[in-house]
């Protein structure tokens, strides 16, 4: 269990560290200044986290395959998927650099990080046979919908960050007055074909496209909060002590996440708040997965 917690910690750190990696790079913003070692520390820390995580996942996969060959019970598909995912993450990490922070690759890399976290957490839950809850199909279905909604919102957040659109709207709740007249959906969600060598601080999108991206992320945040709020309320009122506790934890994390999102706007995107926003999104996703997991397992009826 300690090793699993360490794996989860590494993934959360790698995900939450990504805003630091995307901070202004002196040698790109000011090419006449020679880069010195300490200015690249954030990116190197991110790479060390990712490399360590990849090594540990490889060990887990190899060990599970060896165990499978001896027992012949069931092929470790979850571990195999996790290994394939981390290999893909390595490729996306390299492409993020070689393609000059191409937004589609950056967002895919973020999505891969969250997917890695989800699979590791599922692996941990699968190994934990102590907690059990009565099966609740209705709650499971709404939980799956909630996970999909949150995943889409996370992708919107990644797209907002990858296209440097996080600061274009400084008013609440959506954007400044009259933002509806500045929408450019076609360019805002163009996944390919910009034709640039480097996308950091570049104007590959016009202001209207960035406003569109940010506005969609804001509207997505409102919708996500409503959906997750309903799901977590039902979990709290399910009659199961396990689900009630998980629901309360998830609701608390949701409140924190909304507060961090508002703080990003009011405080003009401070680095620590941006990092915390990523990290808490990961924790929120894990809380949803845990509720769905324990709602779908046949176990001891718990009316505590």
Q: What's the number of extended β-strand segments?
A: 0
Number of domain units: 2
What is the rounded Rg?
21 Å
Continuous helix count: 10
Determine the oligomeric state from the structure: single chain
End-to-end gap: 26 Å
Could you tell me the mean pLDDT? 80
Main sheet attributes: strand count, strand direction, barrel closure: none
| Morphology call | globular
Q: Which consecutive residue ranges, at least 5 long each, have pLDDT under 50?
A: 23-38, 298-304
Range of strand content:
under 5%
Give helix and strand order, one letter per element, not per position: HHHHHHHHHH
Structural class: mainly alpha
Query: What helical percentage do the residues reach?
Result: over 70%
Description:
This protein has helices spanning 2-21, 26-29, 41-71, 77-98, 103-127, 137-162, 185-188, 207-236, 241-266, 271-296. Helix 1 runs antiparallel to helix 3 (41-71), helix 3 (41-71) runs antiparallel to helix 4 and helix 6 runs antiparallel to helix 10 (271-296). It is globular. By secondary structure, it is mainly alpha-helical. Mean pLDDT is 80; it is low at 23-38 and 298-304. The chain contains ten helices and no strands. It has two domains: 1-128; 133-304, no CATH class.
């Amino acid at each position: 269990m300690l090793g699993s917690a360490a794996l989860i910690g590494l993934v959360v750190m790698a995900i939450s560290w990504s805003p630091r990696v995307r901070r202004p790079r002196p040698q790109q913003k000011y090419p006449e200044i020679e880069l010195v070692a300490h200015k690249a520390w954030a990116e190197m820390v991110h790479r060390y986290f990712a490399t360590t995580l990849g090594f540990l996942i490889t060990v887990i996969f190899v060990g599970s395959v060896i165990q499978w060959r001896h027992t012949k019970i069931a092929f470790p598909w979850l571990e195999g998927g996790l290994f394939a995912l981390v290999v893909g993450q390595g490729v996306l990490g390299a492409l993020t650099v070689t393609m000059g922070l191409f937004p589609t690759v950056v967002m895919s890399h973020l999505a891969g990080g969250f997917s890695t976290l989800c699979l590791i957490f599922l692996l941990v839950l699968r190994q934990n046979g102590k907690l059990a809850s009565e099966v609740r199909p209705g709650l499971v279905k709404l939980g799956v919908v909630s996970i999909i909604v949150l995943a889409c919102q996370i992708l919107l957040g990644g797209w907002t960050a990858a296209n440097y659109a996080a600061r274009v709207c400084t008013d609440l709740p959506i954007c400044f007055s009259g933002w509806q007249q500045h929408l450019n959906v076609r360019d805002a969600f163009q996944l390919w074909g910009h034709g640039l060598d480097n996308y950091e601080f570049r104007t590959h999108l016009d202001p209207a496209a960035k406003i569109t991206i940010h506005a969609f992320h804001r509207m997505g945040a409102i919708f996500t909060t409503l959906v997750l709020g309903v799901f977590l309320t039902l979990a709290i009122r399910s009659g199961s002590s396990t689900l009630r506790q998980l629901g309360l934890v998830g609701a608390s994390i949701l409140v924190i996440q909304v507060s961090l999102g508002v703080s990003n706007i009011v405080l003009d995107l401070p680095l620590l708040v941006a990092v915390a926003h990523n990290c808490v999104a990961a924790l929120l996703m894990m809380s949803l997965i845990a509720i769905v997991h324990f709602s779908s397992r046949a176990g001891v009826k718990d009316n505590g």
